[in-house]
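Project standup — Tuesday

K.O.: blocked on the structure for the chain from last sprint. Re-posting the sequence here as requested.
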Amino acid sequence: MAIRTADEHGDIIADINITPLTDVMLVLLIIFMVTATFFVAEPAMQVELPPAVTSELVTKKDGEITVIVNREGSLFVDDLPVSADRLTHELMEAARRVSAERKVVVVRGDREAAYGQIIWSMDSARLVGLRHVSLATEQPEAREGERPGGQR
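H.V.: unblocked you, prediction finished:
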């Protein structure tokens, strides 16, 4: 490929070809758009949360410790499997790893999980000194012609 530096009359060509720059910028834009979807907090364990009319969409924040109780009753602290007798110890370790001043425990209990397991996970958090405990829910699906909560 030959590079021209002058036209037929001997004048220097001073045009800048921005096509390669545009190509690079579009590729970078696509890369950033694809990788940005990985920053959304999605738990590794999929649980079917119970619906609640007053539930709000919340993203994971600093200082948040997640306890997952699946339908079989298995426990997970920050996506790591934990036995029921080690839950208190693992919550204490997770609290040490979190540097935020206000630590929040979010219990994501499957709607088919045993109620006792969810209470045990909340009680374990309080035993460790984690006083801010919340339950994760999802918004119910509104039927056609209804607002969320079953109201017309």
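K.O.: great, moving the ticket to review. The helical segments are 19-36, 87-97, 115-128. The chain has a mean pLDDT of 79.
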